[in-house]
Amino acid sequence: MKALILVGGYGTRLRPLTLTVPKPLIEFGNRPMILHQVEALAAAGVTDIVLAVNYRPEVMVATLKKYEAEYGVNITFSVEEEPLGTAGPLKLAEEILKKDDSPFFVLNSDVICEYPFAELAAFHTAHGGAGTIVATKVDEPSKYGVIVHDISTPNLIDRFVEKPKEFVGNRINAGIYILNPSVIDLIEAKPTSIEKETFPQLVEKRSLYSFDLEGYWMDVGQPKDFLAGSALYLAALTKKKSAKLASLTEEYVNVGNVMVDATAKIGKGAKIGPNVVIGPNVVVGEGARIVGSVIMANSIIKEHALVKNTIVGWNSEVGRWARLEGFTVLADDVKVKDEIYVNGGKVLPHKTISANVEKESIIM
Amino acid sequence: MSAKALILIGGEKTGTRFRPLSLSTPKVFFPIAGKPLLTHLLESIQATSTPKISEVVLIGFFDTSIINAYIATVENSFTFSIKYYQEPPLMPMGTAGGLYYFRDEILKPASGETQPPEHFFLIYADIVCSFPLHEMYTFANEQRPGPAVDFVIMGVPHDDDLSSLKNDPQDNFGSIASIRGEVVHYVEKPETKISSVINGGVYYFKASILQDALPEAKKLREERNQANAFLQFHKPNDDESYSTGNSISWERDLVKMLADKSIPGYRVFCYQYTSYWRQLKTASLVLPANKLYLEKRPQESATSLENVVQPCYIHPSSFPIPPTAKIGPYVSIGANAAIGPGVRIVKAVIGSDVTIGQHTFIKNAVVDNQVAIGEWCRVEGSSNGEVQQAKEGEESDALPTATVLATDTKVLNEVRVYGGVVLPHKELKLDVLNEIIM
User: Fold this and answer.
1) What range(s) does the Mannose-1-phosphate guanyltransferase C-terminal domain occupy (chain A) (predicted)?
2) Which domain holds residue B347?
């Protein structure tokens, strides 16, 4: 089977992290985001993966070469000369996606969930339609395009209602699809939207179905959602009693949902959790407090600091008695001096913060 | 040649801007650098060699028991006697009301003396300075042409717009205009700038001022009140020294009348004081006052612990300080404080019986008695006017607005209190941001 991952451009929504690391390589649960998807696709029997990108940094190419070997898949970059929307990349990668009659997966690279690709493929084959959209249920459907089913045929999509004012359902497009190669013929070679232009044609033909996603789902394209998604991911690991999580018997673990890389060092009296990811070679000082946060590789959280709802980028340093909160994001190589308070600061790489940042702001 | 020092200490109804701290402790007894504010003043009086001050008179309208309890704890430390005159409800109000009412008592010989006092000092108890009483006395009595000097005001020269002394734009100070030292014009709390010398709240004067000039001022005030009875004039709301009805103000009446010769025959001079000076008006000003007294009046019990950055005052009963904690500079800690491991305190006043949980950070804060702060909390005063991204290594001179936690406040684990004022007996479960918690 084949798959196309819509990676897109510079990942500006996830800046300042993406100023130094391409978005697919940003660690989510201590592994590059794209790796979660590559791994799940390979496990479902996918052999050909196309990454639809606007730009192709060398580091990304090199990393994915490594995964090719590791997971026994072919990874191709399909580089758009101009942004082609969400459907255009399918046309551009036509050669690979249409190389056989088997359906192919399409997924948005920002979406995290349990990736039930095998079940999705079986479901798709069973109903016989041209396409299947993975649907997730949300509490407030009024912000999204909502899927409305046909009354008589189970799972057949009757229509989409964009941002409904009255409740018509709460299933929304989760950004993951499986499509028959014939769908590509509906797409013109120009910037087009799969949601707005391609899917309505399939609905018209009564050939588009939806598949209910079990478990968590999150678009982690923004820092706040990245943290929320990390918490969902960790909670799912806890449910599975995964060995990837720190044991509750560890003295520093508070409540749970804590992932600590084996090379990280945790100081005495530190209190970590819930919902914390600590990356490789991170040093957490004595008496530091970390909650609802992600600490990337090689960073140092010094003694007595408190880090809450914050992403600490790579090679950064948080001083003694500093307090970070309010969805603060430190990029690569940021230093927050001792005793400083940062609330909702987005700090660009290589900066030193030596005065309090009280309000949400960007530190250039 | 004996002298008396008269100290105006106010009462429950004054010092409202010192709330919430004054809800549980009279402002004059609030500990600054480890001692009640008033004790610093009494120590300065004790250190004055000439004139010899044989009696200190506290004048105010606090309940006698509160003041006598204080006097009982300190009187053995001083060679002078300490008396308290409580202003009765039906006496003249205003800053000079008590002085007028008790003037005959004040003019009598101090206990154990036969001669009536010749020299007087009048001092506002909420002033923080070095109290140059000897210097003012010497200045008043030095050789100069003409009649002897009867009255000296301590003037504090101030070139800029006073913003560094102000914690609140409402703050205003008496303004002194003088020619070659002789005061020619005085305006209490002017709206515009009159001169660059403000009234420092410390006075020296001779017996004739209490005996003759003050009754004269009272008479003049009554005459003027009658003449102006039908006139409504601007009256600031919270101005404690304003004179109305039966009241008499030391500044608005006596000092002004002496300066403009409405009461003729007295020579009034201004002593130019050039050292440190502040008035403890609001609770926030506890911090600069604490900083000054820690610097200028170092305590003998200063420790040499590596993790205590001097100057600091820590009550002996609050040791040991855990080695992982770091205290100072400019921190005062009262009795029986329990400081947890990894606690950081800087520029703060901590009362008695305070508990501070591990890894908590406290800066620019006033923490009253019996407050309990949890683990990993951050209690921090806001820094008004401070540029958000100060350049590296720079710290703004702007006065911080202290975070004030009144008696028996509880701050739960990991809560941040920033720039708030919390009234007594409250529990804080959520972050507080520039709020007054009733």
Assistant:
1) 255-363
2) 298-437
